[in-house]
Amino acid sequence: MTVVIGFEGSANKIGIGIIRDGEVLSNPRRTYITPPGQGFLPSDTARHHRAFILTVLKEALEQAGLKPADIDCVAYTKGPGMGAPLVTVALVARTVAQLWGKPLLGVNHCIGHIEMGRLITKANNPTVLYVSGGNTQVIAYSERRYRIFGETIDIAVGNCLDRFARVIKISNDPSPGYNIEQMAKKGSQYVELPYTVKGMDVSFSGILSYIEDAAHKMLSSGQCTAEDLCFSLQETLFSMLVEITERAMAHCGSQEVLIVGGVGCNLRLQEMMGVMCKERGAKLFATDERFCIDNGAMIAQAGWEMFRSGQVTELEDSWITQRYRTDEVEVTWRD
Amino acid sequence: MAAAGEANGGTGKLEFSLDVPFPSSRDATIALRSLSPDKEPRKGGISKLITVSGSTLSVRWSADESRILRVSVSSFLDHLSLVMETMEMFGPPVAV
């Protein structure tokens, strides 16, 4: 049996999870929620993580019913993400690894999402759509790498949603994306927005500028409601994502799609992807907010795979990095 | 904990040094190894050297501007207190 504890805090969630051979023993998490109209800044987010990380660590051990001696490896997010929050989490991971005499393992956050999605859904070799506040990538595995077939050329899809939420002062509790999703259900009028698929890549910054402008003009004149804009934004963004995912599937001859990342728990995105999959005779795999949204168990799971394949990270090499592409990691645990 | 800031006439740089006592040299070394891997975020204008002697962790900064020095020292103190809290809650270190 191999037990791995995973520390995640690359954005506004601080999570610590424990995995024992594919079983999630615990996975507590806290979210830094900012007032409507405001995003989360690195230093404030790091302060939030510092305030909660030791309590969350205690919870993770207690809920798993484990002592430090039962743990085989300490995994943490090496990157990508915001620098200050990443350092905060890495500091605690390094310290407990030394206190408990356990090996340390730096994990790529994106790989964490993919491996957690594979574990929970049992998808074998899916085309992966990774969509969150910081990342938008279509990924397929080949020859020991998770290869990026398409990605955003500017901001992430979740960042586009979050920033639109800020413009019209939608609550960030539990998350701006969740509240947009609920409001979109009440939208009835489709407001046409730019549709910006560029080959295998997507672009969201122009759509954001356009809808920010439209929001100011159309809401004040009563031409549409905030709900209509939420609906229109989701339909446009998600259509683009489904299009590039389908193209990657056609290219790879894949019959499986796995959606991971925080935006992946949006049921409308899952529904639209499901329609495309059904038309192609393919299977859709997705997870709920426990595992889609950043959490510690996903880092533990990727760490478990890496550790079992013989990897560890020496302390002097355990620096964090804000930029760390999915395809930089050699996948030593898959054929 | 002893700290001192001074403008060094020889190099023209601002220097700052900090000594932190730990219960044992083992604890001081753990803190050193937790705090050392991440380099200063900015490319120039500041350098930081962390060492351990006995059970004391020592840090010495050398910076071009007080503004940069203040940011680095302040962030180091945040990091240090988190490491020390972690050691209090989840230590003492296991025997090796």
Give the class of chain B from helix and strand content and strand pairing: alpha+beta
Give a count of the beta strands of chain A, DSSP E runs of length 2 or more: 13
| Assembly status | heterodimer
What do we call the CATH topology of the largest domain in chain A? Answer: Nucleotidyltransferase, domain 5
Gross morphology of chain B: elongated
User: Separation of termini of chain B?
Assistant: 28 Å
Mean pLDDT of chain B: 91
Helix count of chain A equals 10
The CATH class label of chain B is Alpha Beta
Largest beta sheet: strand ordering of chain B: 1-2-4-3
Global Rg of chain A: 20 Å
Biggest β-sheet description of chain A: 6 strands, mixed
Give the second-level CATH assignment, the architecture of the largest domain in chain A: 2-Layer Sandwich
Total domains of chain B: 1
Family (chain B): Belongs to the CTAG/PCC1 family.
Pfam families (chain B): Pcc1 (PF09341)
Main location (chain B): cytoplasm
Keywords (chain B): Cytoplasm, Nucleus, tRNA processing
Quick structural gist:
The complex is a heterodimer of chains A (335) and B (96). Chain A has 335 residues and is α/β, with parallel strands linked by helices.
Structure keywords:
heterodimer; A: 335 residues; alpha/beta; Nucleotidyltransferase, domain 5; 13 strands; 44% helix; globular; B: 96 residues; alpha+beta; four-stranded antiparallel β-sheet; 2 helices; 4 strands; 38% helix; acyltransferase (chain A); Peptidase_M22_CS (chain A); nucleus (chain A); tRNA processing (chain A)
